[in-house]
Amino acid sequence: MNNKIFTLLLALGLISLASCEKDTPRYLPYEGYAFTDTDEDGGDWIPVLQESGAAIEITAPESTDSQSYLDELEDMKEAMASMTSEQKKAIKYWTNNPAIRWNEIALELIAKYNLIPGPNADGTYTLPNPSNPEGPPAFPFAHPPYACRALAYMSVAQFDGLISAWHHKYNYNRPAPYQLDENIVYAYEDNDIPSYPSDGAVIARASRNILTAMFPLEAEYLQGLEEEHLESLMLSGGNVMSDIDAGVEIGDAVSTTALARAANDGMKNAQTPKAVSDSIKQAALDRFGWAWDNLEIPVRPVGLTPLFGKVTMWSIDDVESVRPIAPPQLDSQEFLDDVKLLKDYAKNMTDEHRRIANFWQDGLGTYTPPGHWNRIANELMVEYRLNPLQTTRTLAYMNMAIMDSGISCWDAKYYYHYPRPIQLIEGFKTIAGTPNFPSYISGHSVFSAAASEVLAYVFPEEASKMRAWAEEAAISRVYGGIHWSFDATVGTEQGRNVAQYTIDRAKADGADQ
């Protein structure tokens, strides 16, 4: 038995590595580009956590004819004159829209840590512990709830930080170094966005701080990335050190605010003790007459994050106010029809259905469904040449909607505690692994629908495509035998409904005016 388990885990590990290599390339093949807009009024937009763009105060910059500034220019030119090939590669890598690069780094870390802890030799399980991140097992297990939360906090900190940066940029209107000295050649496309404070430095510091809190074992790696990024800002000809220092100050401020919220949002209680998990299951059994069972061998005593549905939402005050309708009774015609449907899919599996199921699987060793949609967003933002402020706004609202929809999904999962097909259909087999939590509603469906709605709002020309992809992601879980069809359809509706709260908030932030 132990040899079989070891062989299975080894196979899964190889599959995960291959999937990670395929699904999470280091970066998109884009370089710096000309922005479609500079959003001069961006400092007046309403942040998510800060009171206003003016809430974070920084020191007024020295005038560009001051000796201290002229000295900074000379230091910049001296450094640029002696650049190494590695420094030139770094400038090219980070681009003039580095929020996308930091998002890709987050996806890389999610994939690296998206590995469920296996059983101990005695059949028990040990959970990752933030107080002992080295473990074993290592902390965190970057499952979909963890992933969507990490992405949301990083994106919100970036967005709030750039609203503050834009406020000060257009208040002080300090030109970029390359605009003041013709001997300085800017590495990217010229733009008229003032240089103080550096928006790139805001992104670097806020991202490093949030990701270090979420992935503590990667602190040294993230510090090295930040140092490379900050250096590239000066070597690109875009910022002197005082620009960068001011941006770092803002990055520290916004990440402190974001992490203070994270510390008290309830996530630390999401993975419950067995007694709490058992009481949740019994309540559903008493309420509905059914309950989901864990079918792993050995049985994992607690499902994945039973109380993630209690985590504080971004745009909705009460998760129960958006709870979806109850799933079908187990003796209803709707349920019996679905049993027949899933058996038919399994018996008559087509190459196309299998392709769809595999494409959207986003299982262990990948960047999860929330990460998949971040990848899609990154590609769109490059295609439409969004500036850094617009980029962080898109990512912030999309990841807020994904996280809120995920919270509402987990509330439904553990409130209804609905069994999965593999539990109720005798002899039924899936073409992918069965997740360690109840069936109704489908997380893939909810995450995808929420993300697609925000992207449809930001990129209306892409709305039909985004919604079609979300529906394909939803049905993929039915083709795979992991979910009932009503898990997918109700989940899609749920994701769209929850996302609308975030979209309404976005429409009121001043950016659309």
Topology:
Layout: H1 2-23, H2 67-81, H3 85-94, H4 99-113, H5 144-172, H6 177-180, H7 199-214, H8 219-235, H9 241-263, H10 274-288, H11 333-347, H12 351-359, H13 368-383, H14 388-416, H15 421-424, H16 443-458, H17 463-479, H18 485-507
Describe it.
- The termini are far apart.
- The protein contains 18 helices and no strands.
- With 513 residues, it is mainly α.
- The N terminus is likely disordered.
> Helical amount among residues, as a percent range?
55-70%
What structural class do helix, strand and pairing data support?
Answer: mainly alpha
Shape: elongated
Question: For the terminal residues, how far apart are their CA atoms?
Answer: 64 Å
Helix count from the secondary structure assignment? 18
Low-confidence stretches: 1-25
Q: How many beta strands in the DSSP annotation?
A: 0
Overall mean pLDDT stands at 94
Cα-atom radius of gyration = 24 Å
- SSE order: HHHHHHHHHHHHHHHHHH
Strand content: under 5%
- Major sheet attributes: none
Q: What labels would you give this structure?
A:
513 residues; 18 helices; disordered N terminus
Task: Provide a compact summary of the structure.
By secondary structure, the protein is an all-alpha fold. It contains 18 helices and no strands. It is elongated and about 80 Å long.
